Each structure stands twice: as C-alpha cells, then as structure tokens.
UniProtKB/TrEMBL annotation:
Gene3D superfamilies: Leucine Aminopeptidase, subunit E, domain 1. Residues 234-278 form the Microbial-type PARG catalytic domain. This is Microbial-type PARG catalytic domain-containing protein. InterPro entries: CHP02452 (IPR012664), Macro_dom-like (IPR043472), PARG_cat_microbial (IPR019261). It comes from Rotaria sordida. Pfam families: PARG_cat_microb.
Amino acid sequence: MGSSPTKMIPVCTNELMQQPVSVYVPLESLTEPVVRSIISVTTSSYELNMNYSQRTLLMFLLAIDEKLQQIENKTDTAEQTSDESIIQHTKNVRQWLVYNNKEPLNWDELRKIYNKMTKQEYNSLANYFGVKDAVPYFELTMRTPFNDVKRSRDYINKFRKDGFKPEELKLYWNVEQLENLCPKQGDQSEITPPHDPSDTDTIENLRKFPVYDRNHRVKINYINKGIEKAVFDVPKDAQIIVLNFANEQSPGGGYLRHARAQEEIILYNSDGYRALLDLKYQRMNGGYAILEFGLAYVRNIRFFDAESEERHRLADMLVSACYCLNGSELYDNPRTPDELKKNNLAKFRAFMATAVANTIGDGSNTYLLLGPIGTGAFGNDVEDIAECFREVLEMPMMNSTRPIRYAFSNIWFVSIDDWKNDIFQKILPKSESDNAEEL
C-alpha cells in the first residue's frame, strides 16, 4: 500500500518551487532505520546545503505523514480498505516519527519550515559559481572553463535536450521496497503490488521472469580500466547496468568543479548529468538527496567514445552512495565497525536488488558493472567493501533460494586500480565452472 500511482508531470520553471511534486511513499516497506535517518537530517539543522538536500528529505518526511493520515482517516485512495497488517504497520511507523527526546514530531512546525524553505530565494550553489539568475537547470548553461563539462553538454544537447522521461527516473527507499515487488513461487495472484509509477515495466518483467526462476552460470570478471572504457567492451546486444559511486547530496559530486572521481568520469563521458538534474528538478522539487538506505536508478544514459562521438553505448545507472569516512556528508557516519558493516550491507542489498529488478529479460544478457565503491576519497577500506560485496552476492534475495549472483550471467568489477581488483578477486566468489542448475 504505497501512495497512489499518480502521473508524474514535469514542473514548469516558474512554478518549480510553488508546485509540490508528488512523492511516492512505499509505506509497507518503511523501516525504522529509514525513517530515523530522514528525521535525523531534517531536524538536526535547518540550514540548507547547496543542493537543498534537507528540504528534499523534509518533503519526503511530510509525504510519510500525509500517507499515514490517509490510512488513519480511512481516506487512502490507493485501496478501498486497509488490511490489518497495513493498519498495524501504520501505527508502528507513527511511533517512529519522534524527535531524539521521544517527543512526537511537531508537524505544523515542520510544514512551516518547509514552506519557508521553498520561498528562499538565495541560491548558494549559484552564488558559488557566480551565477546571478539561478533558474532551474542553470548548471547546464553557466560558464565553465572545463572542456570535459563542455563536451558532456554537447552530448546532452544532441541526445537529451528534452531530458529523461519520468519512467526512466526511479527512486528507491530501501531494499524492502524491491523485495515487495517480487512475486513468490506458487503465487498466482493477479493483484499488482503497490509501486511507484516509474516501476510499471519492473513489475511486468518480474512477473514474466521471476527471480526464483533465474539460475545462470555467472561469470565474474575483473576489468582494469576506466568505467567509460569498459562499457565499450560489453557485447553490443547486451544490457549494461553501471554502478555510479555517487555523491548523496550533490548531483554529480564535483562535476561542475571538474573533479575526477568515478562519478564525474561517468558524467563527462555520457549524458548522465542531465538525468541527475532531472531527478533534482523534477522528482525532488529542486533539491537533491539520495536516501541513506536507498538509491536512484536511471534508464538509458548514453556513453560516448571520447575519440569518436559517433560511437556510443546505452546503459542503465545505479546511483548509490557510500559513507565518507574522511569527513561528513549528508548522513551521520556509523559509530562502530559493526554498524558500518550492517548499514553498508543494507545499501549494497538495495542496489543489487535494484539491478535485478530492472534487468531486461531474465538477466542472462545483462552485464552488471560494479566496483570498489567508496574506497577513494571517501576512505573506505577495500577489503571491507569487498567483504560486503561477497556477503551480498551470496545472499538469497527477492524470493529466490539461491545466491542473488545467479540472477546474472555476467558481473564485472571495474577499477583503474589493479591492486583493488586483486583484493576483490581474492575475496569474492569464483565464476561458476559447473552448470548452476546443479547447485
């Protein structure tokens, strides 16, 4: 019982801050860590960062309250009646909506704060770059001295001038949201599970190719080159899903400053930056925040060969963030190694489930390109990240009794650092030399 699947209509430039964007709330999938994470950011400080991440999360928080009120007042339009499990879960979620002192959230005050935030005219990001007229999408037209940024703008203007379609931009709150989309073995029900409007294709594919039936002889390869080059090594007729080592509070991280981390490299060599801005301006009402235990998923970005603009490859992109152990980002870092591992496993399970849910077909012709996320400037230990990947790849998920890696035929770990791939290769499961049907 999520929010009603309303049609997502792009918001006009002049009305962007005045028209609230419809937020899908996967009510049945909400967990206490997800709710507490949002509350922690939205109530710890009302000072907005450069991309209004706090305002975006406050918008999500208010949408949760609105959804709960629909159930509590029996005015939910998604279903005529709410079953007992949803009613009980609604009560549980309501109990989680408290300040650190356990007092209930002051919703009237939070709405006033949100309304004040939407009327704020000062744009610190635009000011930082010397932009006076900070209209939506000013990031695509502001002056830049960087050729990589200019080149990616050329790609965007050529192939994505009108932006990405609503159904190509997906947001997920946690792994539970993906798990709840999956049919169970033996379930013949024709009832469609609650889902975000952008997931209509996902629902259809999961029913046609349920995860419990996927049992491929997976090949795990280690590719020592940049992600922008590796995509061109994938067979031409295959689907590509790329893991973007994303910044959780800034679309593209240091893209506008010409940083050179993995996310920025992806965006300099593709039209993917437009997708992140569409997430910001269309799905997040002019702000940007990747949920702590969730991610975004973008269909059909286009990678370009820097040496031949006519050579390009379509790929889907997982937009997922790791903790920055060398500093602070949007969310508080875990306090103990055990908490860090637990949270990372939740993050990794979410992007792995997202990749499985969004395969075209049964995953046999999908290449999943992963890598040592968070082990660069963010300071995560390479062995720790490899161990998280190992555990997740060996987990049964999405109503399958087999390790989730068997949902794919090809998984690549891509890195420009050979030594990181060497560590990964020692820790991760081996490719299957025998037919997976025997497992």
